[in-house]
Each structure stands twice: as C-alpha cells, then as structure tokens.
Request: fold
Amino acid sequence: MEQRVLVLTEAMPPFTDGVASTVQQYLEGLQSAGLLAGVALPRSLEGQDPSPYHLIGYPTIGNTGDGEFPIGFPVSRKLLRACREARPTVLHVHTPFMSMLLARRLRRKLHCPIVLSYHVDSAMDINRYVKSSLLRRYLHRLLLSNINAADEIWISDNAAAHKLREIGYTGGYYVTESGTNLSACEPSGDQILELRARYNISYQEPILLVAERLVWHPNLRLLLDCLHTLHSKDVGFRLFVLGDGPDRASIEETVASLRLDGLVHFVGTSLENERLIYHCADLHVATSPYHFVPQAVKNAAQCSLPTLAMYGSASYEILEDGVTGLHAQATANALSDAIMTALADRRNLRRIGQQVKIELPQTWVEAMAHNVRRYKTVVAQYWERSFFLNPKQAAKATATQTELSQSAT
Reply:
C-alpha cells in the first residue's frame, strides 16, 4: 500500500522556532517524494499566500503563554471528513497537545498509526507559561497521556529520552536525526567582505553567533552579561543574533542598556543572511535551555563553525570538548573565560570546525530518506499488533483503508 502521511502541527512558518523549521523540512521532503497527504493545523497558520501543500485548517481559540503560537480547536465533523478525504496511512504529529488529540480521534476513524515527534521539552513550557497549579497538573497529565497514546515516539537524540522519562513515560522510542538545509558551499570572498563592510567589522574582530527563537531564558541573559564583561575588558568581538520571537524588542532594549548595541546585530530570519553568517562567524554559542540538540548546532557544523555548549544541554553531551566543540559551565565567570579563550585562538576554532563538519551533519535529503523507510516499518508493526489483538477490528480497519485507497483512483 502506498504511504500517505498526514502532518498535524501547531508550529509552522512564518513562525521562527526550531519546531516550525523542522516541520517545514518534513513537508518539503514528503511533498517531493509524493507522500504528503496534507497538513492539519490551526487556521491562523494558513497565511495569506497560496500554499504548495494541501492545508486542512481548523479554528483557533487562543494563543500559548508567550502569545505567539495558536491553540487550535480541532473538534468539528467537517475537519474529520476533510482529514479522511486526504486518505492518510500514517499520522505524523509534531506538537503533543491539540494536534495529538486530533490524531487520536483520526486513528479511531481511519485506522492508521500515529508517529509523534517530540521536538522540545513541553513540560518546561508548561511550567514556564502556565500560572495556575491546577491547570499545570492537568496539562502534565494530558501531555503524558498523549505521549503514551502514540504508536511510535521519534526523538532527535538520546538527551530527549531523559526528558521523556522525567515526565513519566516508560515506553520505547526511536532516535531519528534531523538534517540541515544549509549549503556547505562557502560564500565568495566578495560576499564576506561585503558583510563585514555592511556592519563595519574589521577582519581582526571575531564574530560570535546566536541562532534561536528570541525568548528570554537564563542562559541568554547570562550571555549578554558575559559580553558586557568582555567589552569592559576591551575584548573585541561582534555578535550576530539570527532569529526572531516575542521577546526580541525586550532583548534589544537590554542590549542597548548594556551599551552593546553597536556590537550586537539582530539580523532576523532571512535565509540569505543565515547561510552567509554561519560561514562568516568564528564561534556559535548555543544558549538554548531545552534539553535537545538545537538545529543551529547542525547548521553550524555544516558550515565548519564550532559550537560552544553550556553544561547540562544536549549539545554539551554530543560535542567533545576541544575536538568537535567547546564546553563551558553555565556561570558568568566560566562562560566569559571560555569565550575569551576561544576567540584568542581562531586557528584552533577553524580546526574544531573542520572536525565537527566531518562527524555531525547530514542533509535533510538523507534524513528524510531514512524517515520514509521508517514510516513503512511503523505501518507494518501497527497492522501486526492490530491483527494479533483484535482480528475482527483489524479486518474492519483493513476494509476502511482499502476503501480510502480505492477512492484515490
């Protein structure tokens, strides 16, 4: 039976976090392989321009605690009918709340397995944004229930497995790495000179890079304080901040208050800027508090750019200090010393960058080829379980899938 994947998500461009970027890569990969059945998402994410994908929208009832991402209300019969008409054989969920509730209903109707990609530490987001202790407890129970309901959990690294165990999940999981969509081709010398001239950066000034969704968290504030300390010690540097988010204006105000506004440049999310800056930077600083390897670390490796990772992060675990990356304790003095030492030896940074490029990256084309093969395994295992546990129900499910397949012809 031909595989058809229905993607369910509450994060998608034009939003700028890592989940939205990853979802976009899945959509492009599935579309090019002819396997994308459609995308079920809150209607507010559909955008104004025509989409290359078959979008199945549903109403939005509010936004997440940071005010940026929509909370959908996927309950109508019309929505279920539209999803059925997409004729999926696999439901791939990228956000574990309302999208997962919809997937559970669809599985009962359409008899196809659920893959849940657990991209970020959702329990941390609940604790950060939800003030009511009663609501927090409910959302934690819902999160665990939804994770347990999936037929297979996909995670990007073993660090994510620890977070799953912390929230009470005891089942299995499958590690499937993400890829990078950045070209390994270096920009021309003229492009590099133009970038440095645009921001008045001399060749002697090293360039730091932070690439993430712009929301306040302790490590980001710690980095800005460290840069203020380095500046007071006359250590030369520039920092490019690649990304956007709800706290960008507040972060820019803090940068100005620390008198770093001439040294810190916010460049948004332009893909043209992204590739050029990754190649021009000397050191990527991974400040993300989430216990998952950020996409930016793999993008950096693709461009031979070493990453400085803070203790306790997933990046810290996968990068060997002094070989494929650099380590630092998450304290003001330790981080300041680590950055100052790194920038003092840019030749060593280039050596580390060359090594991490060999060991870490894979392209999204390679990642998606691997994932497509895994979809087939998930479907096969789902049908094996169905026939073993309930032969009559499995026969009914087979008839449903056959009917959907015939309606496509």
